[in-house]
Write a structure and sequence with these properties.
The protein is α+β, with helices and mostly antiparallel strands and 453 residues long. It contains nine helices and twelve strands. Its EC number is 2.7.13.3.
Length: 453
C-alpha cells in the first residue's frame, strides 16, 4: 500500500503542479495582453487630445489656445492635465504641475491642487512659435485595475490549486480503495481461496468492467483447477483398490513361496514397489485435500511449540542413529490457528528430508520463534542443515509436485509440494534459502495472540 499511496501522491503533485503552471502562464499572458491594451488606449486618448489642441494652435492664435486649455481645466471632471510653456520656460496656460520635460512620451507624477501626487502618462509636443504643450492623463485607474486583476488572479489561482489538490486527493483515495480491493482479492485467491471475487458496483465504470473481466477469469481458472483436482483424486481413488488387491495377492504368493528362494525375493521387491505406489497415491490425495481448502473450516488453535517439541523428541533418536545432530531452539507459548495433523506433517516432511539428504555428521537445526512484525504477529518455523542443499535456480521448482533435485533420493518429489500446500492453506509463506552450506527452509505462519488452553 505505501507504494501505491506514494504513486498516487506523485500523480496528484504532477497534475496539480501542471495545472498551476498552465493557469499561471495563461494568467500572465492575459495580464500582459491587458496591460498592452490599456496602455494603447491611454496613449490613443492622449494623442487625440494633443491633436485637437494642436489644431486650435495652428488655426488660431495663442489666446485661442489658452482659452481652450482654460475651458478644459474648468470642467473639473476632466481626466487630462495640461501645461503650455513659452520658449523660455514660462508657464502660459494649464494647471498641470510637473517638472520640465523634453519632447516625447513620459511617465510622470503630477500634483493636484491638494498637493497629492498621482502617476500619469504624458506627451510633450512642440507647437508653432516654439511653444511646448504637455498633455497628461492619470494612470491611477489602469494601475488600480491592474492591481485588482492581479489580486483576483492570485486568489483564483490559490482556490483553483486548492480545489485541484482536494480533488486529486479524493480521486487518488478512490483509486487506492479500488486497487486495494482488487489486490486483497488477488492475494486471497493466491492463498487458495478460489471462491473469492472482486465486488462489482452498479456504476459500471472502468473498474467495474475490469472487476467483471477478472471475476470471469477467476471463475474459469477455478473451474479448471477444481476439475483437475477432481480428476487426480478420482484416478488415485480408482487405482488404489486394484493395487491393494494386487498387494494382497502378492502377499499370498509370498507366503506360498519358499523362504529364501529367488521367487520370494522378487515378490518382496514387487510388494515394496506397490507400497511406494500406494504412498504416492496417498500423498496426491492429501495434497488435493489440502489445496481444496475445505479443511480450513475445521481449523482450531494449535499449541505449535508443544507440537514441534514432541516431534523433535521423536526424531532425535533417529538423527542420533544416523550420526547426525538435531539441535532445537523453541520459543514457548507460540500458538497458531490451523490443523494440528497438517502442521505436524510440515515438520515431519522437512525433518525426514533433512535426515535423508544430509551425510553422517551433519547438523540439523529446528527453530520456532516469534516474527518481528508487531502489527501482524507471526510464527517463524525454520529447519536448516549443512548438507548439499538445493541450487538457487532449482529452489522454486523444488516446491512443485514430482520435482526431484539432482541430489537424488527414492521419493516421488511430493514432500516439499505437500509442505507448500499446507503452508498456503494456513495463510503462510515458505522460503528456501542457502544455509551456507546446506538448505534453510523458513516458514512464516500467522500467530494467535494467546496460547490455547
Amino acid at each position: 500500500m505505501p507504494d501505491r499511496a506514494h504513486t498516487v501522491r506523485q500523480i496528484t503533485l504532477f497534475f496539480t503542479a501542471g495545472f498551476a503552471l498552465v493557469t499561471l502562464l495563461l494568467g500572465a499572458g492575459a495580464y500582459l495582453l491587458g496591460e498592452d491594451v490599456v496602455h494603447e488606449q491611454l496613449d490613443a486618448q492622449i494623442i487625440a487630445e494633443t491633436r485637437a489642441l494642436r489644431a486650435v494652435a495652428e488655426e488660431g492664435d495663442l489666446a485661442a489656445l489658452m482659452e481652450a486649455l482654460r475651458r478644459r481645466d474648468d470642467r473639473g471632471v476632466n481626466s487630462f492635465g495640461y501645461l503650455l510653456t513659452a520658449p523660455d520656460g514660462r508657464r502660459l496656460g494649464g494647471e498641470l504641475v510637473t517638472e520640465a520635460l523634453g519632447e516625447g512620451w513620459h511617465d510622470i507624477r503630477f500634483r493636484d491642487p491638494d498637493g497629492e501626487g498621482h502617476p500619469a502618462r504624458s506627451l510633450v509636443t512642440r507647437l508653432p512659435g516654439g511653444l511646448q504643450l504637455t498633455v497628461a492623463m492619470e494612470s491611477d485607474l489602469p494601475v488600480q485595475l491592474r492591481n485588482r486583476l492581479l489580486f483576483l488572479f492570485a486568489l483564483g489561482l490559490v482556490l483553483l490549486v486548492a480545489i485541484a489538490i482536494v480533488g486529486s486527493a479524493l480521486f487518488g483515495r478512490t483509486i487506492i480503495g479500488r486497487l486495494n480491493t482488487i489486490n486483497r482479492i488477488a492475494s486471497a485467491v493466491s492463498r487458495g481461496q478460489l471462491d473469492a471475487r472482486i465486488p462489482v458496483s452498479q456504476q459500471n465504470d472502468e473498474f467495474d468492467q475490469l472487476a467483471a473481466t477478472l471475476n470471469d477469469m477467476l471463475d474459469r481458472n477455478a473451474a479448471h483447477i477444481v476439475n483437475l483436482r477432481r480428476v487426480s483424486s478420482d484416478v488415485a481413488h480408482e487405482l488404489r483398490t486394484p493395487i491393494m488387491r494386487l498387494r494382497l495377492r502378492m502377499e499370498q504368493s509370498l507366503a506360498d513361496a519358499g523362504e529364501g528362494t529367488p521367487e520370494a525375493a522378487a515378490i518382496e521387491r514387487s510388494i515394496a514397489d506397490i507400497d511406494s505406489i500406494l504412498s504416492l497415491f496417498a500423498a496426491l490425495l492429501r495434497i488435493a485435500e489440502v489445496e481444496a481448502g475445505g479443511l480450513r473450516a475445521y481449523f482450531r488453535p494449535v499449541a505449535l511449540t508443544a507440537t514441534v517439541e514432541a516431534l523433535a523428541e521423536s526424531y532425535a533418536l533417529a538423527a542420533e542413529d544416523g550420526r547426525r545432530a538435531l539441535v532445537t531452539r523453541l520459543e514457548p507459548g507460540i500458538t497458531v490457528n490451523g490443523d494440528r495433523d497438517l502442521l505436524a506433517q510440515i515438520v515431519v516432511n522437512l525433518l525426514e528430508n533433512a535426515l535423508r539428504y544430509t551425510p553422517p555428521g551433519a547438523r540439523i537445526t529446528l527453530s520456532l520463534i516469534s516474527g518481528k512484525d508487531s502489527a501482524h504477529p507471526t510464527a517463524e518455523l525454520t529447519i536448516a542443515d549443512d548438507g548439499p542443499g538445493i541450487a538457487e535456480a532449482d529452489r522454486a521448482r523444488a516446491l512443485q509436485p514430482f520435482e526431484r533435485m539432482a541430489s537424488g533420493g527414492s521419493g516421488h518429489g511430493l514432500g516439499l509440494s505437500l509442505v507448500a500446500a499446507i503452508v498456503a492453506s494456513h495463510g503462510g509463506t515458505i522460503e528456501l534459502a542457502d544455509n551456507a552450506p546446506g538448505l534453510s527452509v523458513r516458514i512464516i505462519l500467522p500467530r494467535m495472540q494467546k496460547a490455547a488452553h
